[in-house]
Amino acid sequence: MNAVVGLELDFTNIIEALAGSGIGIFPDFIDSNIVASLRHDLLTLPAGELTPAAIGRERHQQTNERVRSDKTRWLEGDTPIQLYYLSLMTRLKQALNRQLFLGLKDYECHYALYQSGDFYKKHLDAFRGRGNRRITTVLYLNEDWHASHGGELLVYPEQSADVLHRVLPTAGTLVCFLSENFPHEVLPAHRDRMSIAGWFRIDDPIAPTVML
What we know:
Number of helices: 3
Structural class: alpha+beta
Low-confidence stretches: 1-7, 58-64, 206-212
Helix content: 10-25%
Distance between the termini: 27 Å
Radius of gyration: 16 Å
Largest sheet: 7 strands, antiparallel
Number of strands: 11
Mean pLDDT: 87
Strand content: 25-35%
Oligomer: single chain
């Protein structure tokens, strides 16, 4: 699935994957020039804007480096490339609602930077029946990534410890899955690892929530 004439993307493969197995992995989802612009946007953020990621929700958020050690920064449309990406996800949300009747109302996302040694232990993005997040998206921004660099995304079936998917965080690859159904983790990275993690929600967030 290749991207890129303005916002004109074909979301058919994503819709079919979510309606079927509930998960899809899409190499070369987005044009390399767009990926490079997003990567540059992340790397040129003002000092201090990437902060240690938290776990928990709202008043119960806290950092815990035994669970996750990456740094994040929410996308708020501060730059043209952020606006482009948010607009693209709005188009995807509209397609998902039109084809799958999901009632999605909002999308939130953040940059995630894993430096050497950083990881994220196995977790769910939403607990069944108790979360507003319905669909998780991850877009990778890393050039020339090899297995020796670590940082793979491991995705598990809901009721099994067996690995269902092992995903190299290669530039342009998009992963989409039902947030309540797939535990996942990020293995320790051996070089800087960059991505945009996002969630389609059934409500409008009052404030960013990060039970990731």
